[in-house]
Amino acid sequence: MGVLVNSKYAIISAVRNEAEIIKSTLNSVVHQELTPHKWVIVDDGSTDGTTQILKEYEREYSWIEVIEKNDRGHAKLGGGVVESFNVGLKEIDFRTIDYIVKLDGDLEFESDYFKSLISKFENNPKLGIASGLTYFKSSNNSLVKENAPLHYAIGPSKVYRVSCFKEINGLVQDLGWDVIDVIRAQSLGWETRNFPELKLLHLRPMSSKAGIMRGRFRNGLTDYLTGYHPLFLTARSIYRLFHYPYIFGGIMIFSGYVYGQIKVRKQLVTATEKKFIQKQQLKRLLGIKPVRK
């Protein structure tokens, strides 16, 4: 089955100081074979010319709306993204769309990306959250996959079926929002996944905007906040020792998790959600993977 004629989607993007790369994302979206019903771009206080670029596209395309927020003086990672996303969400009428998209401003992708991804939803009524998979260019210009388990829809570009989005009560305004949404959707019986054949070129490596080492530490803290099993976290940290940034990336993930245990303590998931994700993680450690269509 192909994409239904009346399948409509709206995009929300939260951006800040992306002047050097934002045109790649803008051009990727405006050239989509399946045009968005609406694209709300929330400019979170950019000071580098991003706003002017966005306004140019807003004038040219009637379905683009730019919202300007005051500059808070710094980027607010994690919760700040969802805060801005929710500002854009107020401009979306759910009665007019079938899918809602959270899209970062540092991505480049083919013109059939959203058409192909939405067709996955149309072919599987149980699919609640999905994405393509991000890749970045190495120093020798080859594409390097940013690995993610198949069941995980990646944070930089997520498509939500509107009914699923409503059931999970939207996004949590904190670190780990892009893990908690998957946990909640799965616990409610929805399927979630990424499709590696649908490639997104990440114009900066994942979790690197504030520095890749800080990003890995934040990954570990997020793992604690979202209830990761200690054994799974340890295995994840060891795995990351052998991936860029070698050795230190894995150490920083483990350190972030331990920091969360000592300093933060309060987690963002319920006891039921924590039990659910830890059960899934132990299965993965034992090599038991969910069956995918």
From TrEMBL:
Short name of one Pfam family: Glycos_transf_2
InterPro entries from the UniProt entry: Glyco_trans_2-like (IPR001173), Nucleotide-diphossugar_trans (IPR029044)
Domain Glycosyltransferase 2-like: 11-149
Organism per entry: Exobacillus caeni
UniProt xrefs under PANTHER family: POLY-BETA-1,6-N-ACETYL-D-GLUCOSAMINE SYNTHASE (PTHR43630:SF1)
GO molecular function, one term: glycosyltransferase activity
Sequence intervals crossing the membrane: 241-259
Family: Belongs to the glycosyltransferase 2 family.
Keywords for the protein's UniProt record, in alphabetical order: Glycosyltransferase, Membrane, Transferase, Transmembrane, Transmembrane helix
Name of the protein in question: Glycosyltransferase family 2 protein
Iron-sulfur is among the record's keywords: no
Gene3D superfamilies: Spore Coat Polysaccharide Biosynthesis Protein SpsA, Chain A (3.90.550.10)
